[in-house]
């Protein structure tokens, strides 16, 4: 049972004060004063019950102030003190304390040995919510003891009601609120215990703890295809935990595949899996998982997912490897409505192909935690999207076709979400020729080009785009909001040709050219960016253009020398802030970015 020193502190100090004043002799009883809820120095004081002690107690009562560093809990309505021993009749005192921060109780107790002091905090119903006791001898010798009140009864709780499916790797646990004499339901927390074997929960250490008052909890990052078991217990403010063992299990339903399985005698269960992914996809009706264990799989033809199918590769560290079919070089995996690809490595066989490794032709597909490994100079596109698909937490690399432009992801339609991915060693990381994609929180580095936009309406936000040898963001068509990106150490940070995007709040640093705007007409809005330390120029303008470039921070401002952003005509020397080749408004500008002198 957990001790709650901070809930109702009760310290006991027994001091038998003997006075030599005339007429005050030994006594047979003591005055016991108990203070509860004041602080860790609150005391039970024992005095001989003579006239002098009673007078001192009376005066102290007149001077007493009620202050508390730890108030009596709100659910305690009465304090009950019971003093007992073998040679005395029990002395019981009941004092109402509802709403009080502290209380002082004085009891006259016969001297003697083995005096037991039991202090109880009662709820309004009369049920004991807290209890503590100690024993001492009242012999005239000073003694210091302490009582710690602890909660008595655990919450009343029926346990976990359900563990339902949220996604292939998450479950929602639900229960009905517990009740308790110590804590209101809104203050009860729930301890969640997780195991992968029945009753394998370790009840000494919860896996998760819910917020107070919760009646549900989402468990994430579960391994697809694994059966999980859960027990939930309620804990009140006194730290008392119920001991129910109601257990519920969760597993995403589906079929299992392993290289050691059999398409002939296998039944698709975890104990008797199929051998090929194609067999499982043929057998499944859709809307369930196909769980593929570690190993290398080379299907004969495209793996066509059915609607709602979750292709979950369960090999740790992406050790489930799916190669593109060799015959006819078709798409490796074709998505479908509400289908999922999770945890896989999807790789090229090495044959020259123009087809993507993954597409979503039949419907919006979620691709998560997947490695798309193209073969440089052999694969044109890693993932081709035309629906409202999502690609998250994945890596696309080595996508090109015979040295011509190849892309990790190519988007031709839909409202795709491209988030929290890594793109590296591609000719181009992302191509947008249509649709309305959101491209956010990605790391795009060491490609030839980063994001190439020729159409559609794009939101490009909060990405890190660096060390791409040609262009970080290239835009020749469509519209775009380009904001809050870090664009650094590319050939050209952002290249704009014949279009008018909004470029706002970016940091564009240490590229050869920061932003290049060319063509006719072009009227981009370039505001509130930090554009500095770009080797050739921060902003290069060429053509019949009109650029709003106010409120940016450059290498120079009104306090630097030379004053303000430096400008020059076409053919600018290295280090110029703005190389003029059209109409540009750049005043007012924000304060200069503090940069090393070598960048100025």
Question: What would your notes on this structure say?
Answer:
The chain has 600 residues and is mostly beta strands. Among the domains are: 9-151, no CATH class; 160-250, Sandwich (Immunoglobulin-like); 491-600. Helices cover 3% and strands 43% of the residues. The chain has 2 helices and 57 strands. Strands 21-24-27-31-35-38-41-44-47-50-53-56-55 form a 13-stranded parallel beta sheet. The longest helix has 13 residues, at 51-63. It is flat, with a radius of gyration of 37 Å.
Q: Nutshell version of this structure?
A:
The chain is 3% helix and 43% strand. Among the domains are: 9-151, no CATH class; 160-250, Immunoglobulins (Immunoglobulin-like), CATH 2.60.40.10; 491-600. It contains two helices and 57 strands.
């Amino acid at each position: 049972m957990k001790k709650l020193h901070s809930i109702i502190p009760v310290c006991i100090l027994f001091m038998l004060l003997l006075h030599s004043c005339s007429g005050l002799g030994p006594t047979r009883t003591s005055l016991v004063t108990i203070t509860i809820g004041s602080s860790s120095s609150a005391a039970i004081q024992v005095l001989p019950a003579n006239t002098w002690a009673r007078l001192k107690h009376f005066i102290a009562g007149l001077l007493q102030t009620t202050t508390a560093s730890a108030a009596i809990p709100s659910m305690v309505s009465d304090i009950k003190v019971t003093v007992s021993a073998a040679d005395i009749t029990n002395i019981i005192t009941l004092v109402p304390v509802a709403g009080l921060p502290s209380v002082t109780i004085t009891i006259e107790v016969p001297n003697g040995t083995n005096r037991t002091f039991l202090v109880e905090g009662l709820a309004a119903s009369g049920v004991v919510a807290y209890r503590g006791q100690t024993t001492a001898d009242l012999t005239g010798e000073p003694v210091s003891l302490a009582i710690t009140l602890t909660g008595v009864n655990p919450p009343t709780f029926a346990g976990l009601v359900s563990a339902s499916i949220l996604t292939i790797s998450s479950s929602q646990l639900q229960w009905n609120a517990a009740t308790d004499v110590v804590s209101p339901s809104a203050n009860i927390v729930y301890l969640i215990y997780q195991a992968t074997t029945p009753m394998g929960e370790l009840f000494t250490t919860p896996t998760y703890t819910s917020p107070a008052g919760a009646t549900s909890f989402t468990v994430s990052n579960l391994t697809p295809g694994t059966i999980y078991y859960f027990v939930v217990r309620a804990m009140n403010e006194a730290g008392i935990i119920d001991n129910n063992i109601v257990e519920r299990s969760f597993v995403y339903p589906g079929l299992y595949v392993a290289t050691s399985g059999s398409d002939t005698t296998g039944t698709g269960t975890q104990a008797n899996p199929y051998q090929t992914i194609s067999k499982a996809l043929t057998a499944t009706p859709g809307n369930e998982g196909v769980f593929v264990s570690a190993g290398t799989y080379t299907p004969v033809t495209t793996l066509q997912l059915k609607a709602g199918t979750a292709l979950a590769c369960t090999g740790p560290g992406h050790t489930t490897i799916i190669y593109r079919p060799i015959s006819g070089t078709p798409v490796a995996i074709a998505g479908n409505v509400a289908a999922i690809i999770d945890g896989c490595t999807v790789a090229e066989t090495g044959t020259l192909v123009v087809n993507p490794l993954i597409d979503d032709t039949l419907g919006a597909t979620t691709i998560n935690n997947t490695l798309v490994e193209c073969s440089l100079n052999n694969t044109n596109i890693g993932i081709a999207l035309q629906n409202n698909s999502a690609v998250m937490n994945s890596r696309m690399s080595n996508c090109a076709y015979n040295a011509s432009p190849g892309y990790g992801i190519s988007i031709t339609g839909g409202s795709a979400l491209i988030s929290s991915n890594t793109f590296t060693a591609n000719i181009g990381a992302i191509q947008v020729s249509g649709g309305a994609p959101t491209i956010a929180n990605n790391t795009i580095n060491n490609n030839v080009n980063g994001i190439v936009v020729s159409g559609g309406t794009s939101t490009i936000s909060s990405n890190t785009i660096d060390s791409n040898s040609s262009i970080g963001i290239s835009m020749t068509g469509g519209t775009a909001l380009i904001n809050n990106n870090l664009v650094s150490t590319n050939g050209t940070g952002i290249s704009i040709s014949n279009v008018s995007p909004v470029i706002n709040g970016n940091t564009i640093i240490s590229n050869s050219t920061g932003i290049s705007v060319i063509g006719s007409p072009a009227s981009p809005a370039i505001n509130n960016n930090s554009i500095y330390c770009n080797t050739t120029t921060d902003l290069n303008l060429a053509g019949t253009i009109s650029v709003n470039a106010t409120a940016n921070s450059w290498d120079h401002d009104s306090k630097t020398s030379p004053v303000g952003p430096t400008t020059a005509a076409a053919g600018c020397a290295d280090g110029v802030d703005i190389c003029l080749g059209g109409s540009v408004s750049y005043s007012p500008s924000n304060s200069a970015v503090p940069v090393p002198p070598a960048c100025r």
